[in-house]
Specification:
alpha/beta; five-stranded parallel sheet; seven-stranded mixed sheet; 15 helices; globular; 28% helix
Length: 547
């Protein structure tokens, strides 16, 4: 049998010769508590044998998890800023870590086991992936390609990244391609704007090629039973706390000092602010640091039923400030301004509905033919906001009462006037977003009843797709920058060849490279899956492309 091609990444230091530490690090300081940071802590304990009591995590927010959030209640409304879709083939590093974490509800099962069991019962099979202006469900199996579209797509896949450079997606395709059913589904599944990086789109096409024949049903998507904070973050944090890891909240890390010696670049001091007072963490000789740079959810703000969320442009949160200060002081740490310098090209808005009546959920199920938790994204292709929604399996929050339901949605084009509401999405309150949604569904007859039993929390995120910005090769630094001796970088803004940003997998893979490299472990990072070298996947995808 032929095997799918995978790229095996045995970690090597970015310097030409790999340097072995004369003494291994005995303790670690981790900046941030997103999935990359939490994974780094797990790997330090599990794979490097570091006692948890020698690991501290500094977090600016009052809670851990970073972008993997889930909060609120049935009265004020639940909130998730985003929703994650996983696949079995692609998320190898995430599954590797979660296979070591006990489920918070079933300690005899791991989080990975729990996710597998849930998806065995609730399979994605969208019947209403695209909806037009006349409230008709479109035949999404017809991708809408003509010969030129197919040629342009094949050309993108064949063009090296160095040749694509900083080109935008819209520079590589005709207007016909950008209006196809395929592009409406692909871009809303992964949140691509037409002005985003063609390099990033190419990586996505190659990394998720196995999804191409089933993009209209999202049949390859795997989800968590609850939101990702409850399903993933809570049990990871508990596992770490049980092993003595110290979490320090309300600590904003704003700057860092480096020293250059004969053996390379060392991070010496982290400058922090806690409760308005400055303090400094000096790293000992036996201490390493893992620093999260940038943030896709920095400066996010919530609105409510009557108010639109505020758009913050001033880099108020610490993640971007820290990276900018670090990059000014040391070479090879990337160019953060590439990603945080144009809010209008990286922002969009999501919203969460909390419904204290099953009326809307039942109407959507009757319209789509999908029970909650099975339908994936429903995209309103002619929506001027390019709005999409998904109805999760209930309950979606661990404390969600029976008889309360949630729905999540987002808009990619938030600066255009609504089709039914005379405002842009950015200007619209939660209830006005609900009104726009109900008109797109054709449910005007129940609008008032739904309005009276529904709370809507919209969320503005200035940097949510900033990692897709057009960039040059050196704008993202390596996980372990050249010459770095005691620190690694984490998050969505490091460079991991062949892998795709805006995924949980990217953050976990980066953590593995960082831990295995700094701790000088002779362990392999799980390989990157390449469906294009799997004959069955390649043939099925080629048939889809060629019609």
């Amino acid at each position: 049998m032929s095997r799918p091609h995978t790229s095996v990444h045995r970690f090597t230091h970015p310097l030409e010769k790999r340097h072995h530490n004369m003494t291994s690090f005995q303790q670690a300081c981790i900046v941030g508590s997103g999935i990359g940071a939490l994974s780094a802590a797990v790997l330090l304990i599990r794979d490097a044998g570091m006692p948890g009591s020698r690991i501290r995590i500094l977090e600016e927010a009052p809670t851990p998890g970073g972008a993997l959030d889930g909060s609120g209640n049935a009265i004020q409304g639940y909130v998730t800023r985003g929703g994650r879709m996983f696949t079995d083939e692609t998320y190898t590093c995430l599954w590797n870590v979660l296979q070591s974490i006990p489920s918070s509800r079933s300690p005899n099962r791991t989080v990975r086991d729990e996710i597998q069991a849930f998806n065995a019962l609730w399979r994605s099979d969208a019947h209403a992936r695209l909806i037009d202006r006349n409230r008709r469900i479109l035949d999404a199996n017809d991708l809408g390609f003509n010969f030129q579209d197919r040629a342009e797509l094949m050309r993108l896949l064949a063009t090296p990244e160095r040749v694509l450079g900083t080109r935008r997606i819209e520079e590589c395709f005709s207007t016909h391609f950008l209006d196809t059913h395929f592009w409406a589904m692909w871009r809303t599944t992964f949140a691509f704007q037409n002005w985003h990086s063609a390099v990033e789109l190419k990586r996505y096409m190659l990394r998720f090629l196995q999804e191409l024949p089933r993009i209209h049903t999202l049949g390859g998507v795997r989800r968590t039973e609850f939101n990702q904070y409850d399903t993933i973050v809570r049990p990871m944090v508990k596992w770490l706390l049980d092993r003595g890891v110290r979490f320090e909240y309300g600590v904003r890390v704003a700057d860092a000092d480096f020293v250059t010696g004969a053996d390379g670049l060392r991070l010496e001091t982290l400058h922090c602010i806690k409760q308005g007072r400055p303090l400094a963490y000096r790293l000992g000789e036996d201490e390493c640091a893992f620093v999260t740079i940038g943030s896709m959810t920095a400066d996010s703000r919530n609105g409510n039923d009557q108010q639109a969320p505020e758009l913050v442009r001033g880099l108020s949160d610490g993640a971007w400030t820290l990276w900018r200060n670090m990059a000014r002081k040391a070479p090879g740490l990337g160019r953060p301004e590439t990603f945080c310098g144009n809010v209008d090209e990286s922002k969009w808005e999501s919203f969460t509905l909390t419904m204290r009546s099953p009326l809307l959920i039942r109407r959507i199920q009757a319209f789509s033919g999908n029970p909650p938790g099975t339908g994936g994204l429903m995209t309103f292709k002619d929506s001027s906001w390019l709005m999409s929604i998904v109805v999760p399996h209930a309950p979606h929050f661990e404390d969600q009462p029976e008889g309360v339901y949630t729905l999540w949605g987002y808009g990619l084009l938030i600066d255009t006037q609504g089709n039914h509401v005379d405002k842009t999405m950015a200007q619209a309150s939660g209830q006005e977003i609900l009104t726009e949604l109900m008109h797109h569904l054709g449910f005007e007859d129940i609008l008032e009843e739904v309005r009276n039993t529904t709370t809507v929390v919209p969320v503005m995120m200035p940097y949510i797709t900033s990692e897709f910005a057009c960039r040059s090769a050196s704008d993202r630094p390596p996980v372990i920058p050249a010459g770095a001796k005691n620190f690694a970088l984490l998050g969505q803004y490091v460079e991991i060849p062949e892998d795709v940003v805006f995924t949980v997998e990217y953050s976990v893979r980066g953590a593995m490279h960082g831990v295995y490299g700094l701790m000088d472990l002779d362990l392999e990072v799980p390989p990157i899956y390449h469906g294009i070298a799997d004959p069955k996947v390649a043939l099925a995808s080629l048939r889809t492309l060629m019609g």
